[in-house]
Amino acid sequence: MPDQTTNAEKLDRDAVADRLTDLTEELRAGENVTVSVGNKDMVLTPPETVGYKIDVIKKQSRFRGNHETVRIEIDWKPR
């Protein structure tokens, strides 16, 4: 059974960039990757090669206003 942890929050751009930088540094280190999700830390074991997918969505609506989304997915089978 999968162990899934989700957290959603509003952050300023610098805080988001810091979290992405932390993930980048963990991936570059080449060992385990620790990802903080809310108040929980998940330890992951990515191999040397991982899957990477990025989606960019731009929606325009006269009534709801414009909306932009970037989704980044990185996946792998643990070592």
In short:
This protein is of the alpha+beta class and 79 residues long. The chain contains one helix and four strands.
What does this molecule look like?
- It is a single chain.
- With 79 residues, the protein is α+β, with helices and mostly antiparallel strands.
- It has one domain.
- The protein has one helix at 13-29, and strands at 33-37, 40-44, 51-59, 67-75.
- The chain has a two-stranded antiparallel sheet.
- This is Amphi-Trp domain-containing protein.
Indicate the topology.
Elements: H1 13-29, E1 33-37, E2 40-44, E3 51-59, E4 67-75
Antiparallel strand pairs: 1-2, 3-4
Descriptive tags:
1 helix, 79 residues, two-stranded antiparallel sheet, alpha+beta, elongated
Strand-residue fraction?
35-45%
User: What is the general shape?
Assistant: elongated
What level of helicity do the residues show?
Answer: 10-25%
Class inferred from helices and paired strands: alpha+beta
Q: Characterize the main sheet.
A: 2 strands, antiparallel
Number of helices: 1
> Mean pLDDT, nearest integer?
93
β-strand number: 4
Radius of gyration: 15 Å
- Low-pLDDT stretches: none
